Amino acid sequence: MVASTPRWGAAWWIAFLVCKPVLLLVCRRGWRGLDGIPRHGGAVLAVNHVSEVDPLLVAEAVLAAGRTPAFLAKSSLFGSGVVGRWFRAAGHVEVDRDHGSGGFDAALEALRGGALVVVHPEGSITKDSGGRLMGLKTGAVRLALQSGVPLIPVAQQGAQEILPAYSRRPRLLGRPLVTIDVGRPVELGDLRKRGSGPEAVRVGTLRLTHTLTTMLDDLAGDRRLV
């Protein structure tokens, strides 16, 4: 059962009051499996990435489940000004791509502290013209293995109909359906027994790839029936 009284900080209440009315106007929602988002404790949400606007839509769904998401976000968003202050206050995780750790240590600390960390394992918005999954990087699996938290796959489609990939021109008419499907945790128990070495990470990433690909194929089939 989805939590009815989420505990948000001031930063998230501000974002909700500003963004929610706009999101209600520009799209319809098809949310599935929100009960699969843990009510407490750390978890990695591994989400495919199709548009610059999809983090807003994923955040909306996570908030509806009673949790506040911590996104991995590039360092430039944490600079001075209102945007930077909001990102820090909202608890997002800074990724400094100029350093080798790339925010991994900060994300690991957040997970061990009970945060719900959202990772786009493709590393960027998909460059596939059909919105299909690109090859995954290993960070999401490494974080889950080292922290011991669940790795939860999240498949989503539809955000690219509001703002196409790599476009600056939103399409604000038509209210497309945005579907977000939260899957069951990827099985990592056997891999944790091996530690978090390269082979465990490789196998875990293959499992995540297979799971997300299957979920996206199912979403595409269902959307054709709508």
Automatic annotation (TrEMBL):
<feature type="transmembrane region" description="Helical">
    <location>
        <begin position="12"/>
        <end position="31"/>
    </location>
</feature>
<keyword id="KW-0812">Transmembrane</keyword>
<dbReference type="GO" id="GO:0006654">
    <property type="term" value="P:phosphatidic acid biosynthetic process"/>
</dbReference>
<dbReference type="GO" id="GO:0003841">
    <property type="term" value="F:1-acylglycerol-3-phosphate O-acyltransferase activity"/>
</dbReference>
<dbReference type="Pfam" id="PF01553">
    <property type="entry name" value="Acyltransferase"/>
</dbReference>
<dbReference type="GO" id="GO:0005886">
    <property type="term" value="C:plasma membrane"/>
</dbReference>
<keyword id="KW-0808">Transferase</keyword>
<protein>
    <submittedName>
        <fullName>1-acyl-sn-glycerol-3-phosphate acyltransferase</fullName>
    </submittedName>
</protein>
<keyword id="KW-0012">Acyltransferase</keyword>
<keyword id="KW-0472">Membrane</keyword>
<keyword id="KW-1133">Transmembrane helix</keyword>
<dbReference type="InterPro" id="IPR002123">
    <property type="entry name" value="Plipid/glycerol_acylTrfase"/>
</dbReference>
<feature type="domain" description="Phospholipid/glycerol acyltransferase">
    <location>
        <begin position="43"/>
        <end position="159"/>
    </location>
</feature>
